[in-house]
Amino acid sequence: MPSQALTATSMRPGPRFNRWILERVRQRRGSPQLPFKLEYRHIYVMPTVFGAWFGLLLATTLIGGLNFNNNMALLIGFLLAAIAQLTTLLAYRNLVGMELSAIRAEPVYAGESAQFRVYLSNPEAKHRYALQLRSDSDRDARDIEINETAVLVLKQASMQRGWLDMIPFNIENRFPLGMFRAWTVIIPKARCLVYPRPSSHPPPLPRSGRGDEGAARVGEGEHFHGLRKYRPGDALKSIAWRASARHDKLFTREYESPQQQACELNWYLMPEVSVEEKLSILTAWIVKAERLMIPYSLELPTDALPADLGPEHRDACLKILALFGT
Amino acid sequence: MSKSRPTSAALLPQSGKANSMLWVITTLVVAAMPQFVLMSLPLAMACLFPVLWRIMAELKDWQPLPAWIRYFAVGLALALLAFSYGDLFGRRASVSLLTIMLCLKLLECHRIRDARLVVSFSFFLCTTQFLFAQGLIMPLYGAATVLLGLVALAQLQRVEAFSNKQKIPASSAPLLAELGFSLRLLLLALPVCLAFFVLFPRWGSPLWGVPETTLDARSGLSDNMSPGSIENLFMDDSTAFRVEFTGNPPSQADLYWRGPVFWRYDGRTWSSSFYGRNIAAAALPEETDTSWRYRVQLEPNERNWLFALDYPTAAPPDARITLDFQLLQRQPVTQLVQYNMVSDPNFTDTPELQMTIRSMALEVPDKLNPRTREMIEQWRSETPQDAALIRRALDWFNQEPFHYALNAPLLGSQAIDSFLFDTRTGYCEHYASAFTVMMRMAGIPARIVTGYQGGWYNTAADYYLIRQSDAHAWSEVWLEGSGWTRVDPTAAVSPLRVERGSLGAINQPRHMLDFSWVRSLRNSVDVMEKRWNTWVIDYNHQRQTRLFEGLGLGQMRPLDLVILLFAVLGVLAIILLPILLRTRGPNSRDPVQQVWQKYLKRLKQTGFQPWPSQGAEELARAAEVELPEQADKIRRISDLYNRLRYAPEPPALQELRVAVREFRPRKSA
Lengths: 326, 669
Fold this sequence. Notes:
The complex is a heterodimer of chains A (about 325) and B (about 675).
Chain A: H1 2-9, H2 13-28, E1 36-37, E2 44-47, H3 49-67, H4 71-95, E3 99-105, E4 108-109, E5 113-121, E6 128-135, E7 139-144, E8 149-157, E9 162-165, E10 169-173, E11 180-186, E12 191-195, E13 227-229, H5 241-247, E14 251-253, E15 263-266, H6 275-292, E16 296-299, E17 304-308, H7 311-322
Parallel strand pairs in A: 4-12, 15-16
Antiparallel strand pairs in A: 1-3, 2-11, 3-5, 5-8, 6-7, 6-10, 9-12, 10-11, 13-14, 16-17
Chain B: H1 20-38, H2 41-60, H3 67-85, H4 91-105, H5 112-129, H6 137-161, H7 175-199, E1 224-225, H8 229-234, E2 239-246, E3 256-262, E4 264-265, E5 270-271, H9 274-278, E6 292-298, E7 305-306, E8 308-309, E9 319-321, E10 327-329, E11 337-343, H10 355-360, H11 370-382, H12 386-399, E12 403-404, H13 415-423, E13 425-426, H14 428-441, E14 446-453, E15 456-458, E16 463-467, E17 471-479, E18 483-487, H15 489-493, H16 495-500, H17 516-537, H18 541-550, H19 558-581, H20 591-605, H21 616-626, H22 631-646, H23 653-662
Parallel strand pairs in B: 12-13
Antiparallel strand pairs in B: 1-5, 2-6, 2-16, 3-8, 3-14, 4-5, 6-11, 7-10, 9-10, 14-17, 15-16, 17-18
Helix pairs in contact in B: 1-2, 1-4, 1-5, 1-6, 2-3, 2-4, 3-4, 4-5, 5-6, 6-7, 7-19, 20-23, 21-22, 22-23
């Protein structure tokens, strides 16, 4: 994938220059220890395409003004040049002193895009305007206030299961006029766990013994099943943030322990398909079992987990699948 | 993918309010304002149509126009332009072309880079306007354009940064703050700008030609004279030139500023002669103690005349003195000119008159004006002395019911006859013309001199201001022994014209805004304009050189200037950088808490008392009971607060701030 991006964009001088800077940073500075405070030596300032073009226009104005000794034109030309010059400082100032405090990413299924959440904090008593994060695959922007820690998200496509390393990104801004770009290159150590892609048509869940799902309230409003309105005192970690965000109200996840027979997800009892296909099916089963709230156990050639239910168990199982064979 | 496209190619948002495009349009309109004013009406309409359309499109979310309409508009505008100006390459025409193209660009300006193009070309358009005018209003115009353009660029930058978002977060700065930010930027840049202005090496001579005309014929006097030509000038209060005397100035009645001299008369129009223009003066006066010494600051007039009192002892550089004592500069005056003059009033111009010139100064159309001719022949027979005849003519003007007035009636083909015997109403050029013809008929060589008479003395700054409305015409007759002698027939009719200046002679207001306080305001503004001219507009290579010689730095080569410039910039950087880059330590106050406190204050204003121990959620429930109509807002605020505090992906603080700002509970009765 990186090689593709290279051929697609190396015709333009910009990306080539960026790549050269990236190499330099890789050799000189490497990945930063978080939290990482941006200092003057980390920040580059260069004119943007618009800035270069504006410079050309100014040069034309000034040469004309000098030739005709037209002092008003010279005044305005010099004024605009001085302002443009000043914006290099403002762009730098808008960036320096920011702190990259953390990068997190929730696991995703292969094929989904990984969302790297970059925590930028502003410890200084000045507002930061339109700070941008930019990688080859995505960008995000935020105004950051005094003492605020903002979360910016960079998406990155995940192709296969396992660890997905975050690609290098820039923290940059073109404040205030877009004529100059001040930026720093971050080569992050962050990575995102990518679970196998759930098979789209998995075989039915394997059942062991009496398959009485009796008490489970299957079919009726699966999505809202187990959620209730937040009540003061509910544990913070039991709040269903995604659902809450969707409905603008706080919801709490309720865990029921239905009296159900566990199902056994066993590598050796699966139909003969390729390893990836098997992992894919297992992933789909786990997702389905979680949804139906049926406890499940997992057995792989490398590892085994006893029957259980719940997000921790699911994540543990999926992680084993994601890293299987690596 | 976002990486394959530069972000400046992103589309501008279509939202109606707080629209960056409106700033872009305002910038363009302000930058083009001086051009709009001077355009012909159809052309101005062609410019305003796309501007208005775009404003409406922004406010009402209109769709872009189909391509054929846009092409049609471009074609139409070009045709109009070619029709109005005749060609597309004159200076005014090319600036009009730029203006019209920028306006039309608004019809298809949908990307950030298009908008930036419009803004930067608006700056360029603004600088082109200084080719035509550099008065005191122009720096204000320039500053306004720059300020608006900066706001537009800042907004576009925000649009670009947030171009992959659904909506751009409301910038915490409202409109005035945006302008304030631009103003701060401008003021911070000003020292650097001035350093460049003063120290950047100026060119002694232009690399390519300065054009012959600047097209805006603000020219005062013209190179011929027919009744009515000065009347237009009379309405024009703009400055012709300013004069500063060293030593005692002459009296008001001696202030005859000599301009074009006319010899030839065809019965209607006076024009100059080849001899007069092209032969150099035979003798020039010597400079003596009683000579007048003065400095003239001449506004551009696109003509070659420089103005001086009679008789100049030497021509300024690049100028010459002609046979009839016109002062002609080699290039037309397209930029402010300053020159030092010495004039000696006690000088005999042309003691011996050559035959060719004499006959030229006696030429009158044969068959015209029989009544005048008849009267002059009678006078001549009664008064053989030249001087006495002149006296008689002036007395006649003075005693007969002649009027000095602006709205002179039109004269027929026998112009002099109908003026002298029928209408008897006119102003300087009528009198000068009639008098000169009368003298010629009597066999006295005579010619017409135009120029300016008088001037307003500015007591505050000790200089004379000569306006276009001071334009004047008088006669000169050649007399044995005293050479060419000035005779002003207007003074015989209206002595006030010469004693008090052109405005003293007329009682009626010339136009709607002709009040004395307006004039005195204009006069005090002129003091500033003069300083502006002296210090800024006329700053050039020579003055730059002299400035540094005056400071004792000797002859500065361009390289020295550049080194000095960098030194000054270094000093400025040492002063400005710490101010710009200072960091204030971490703020101990928690911004979320600050906003929350504000919310609590608003709640308390309604009479509701929160308990200190209440959490956000509890508080919200209690407040909802008290203020049921505000329940939604209260919910939202406490929800935002909780998420800001605890959620892994907190919302922007600005959201809470906005929510609190919009939370305005009514006080309980």
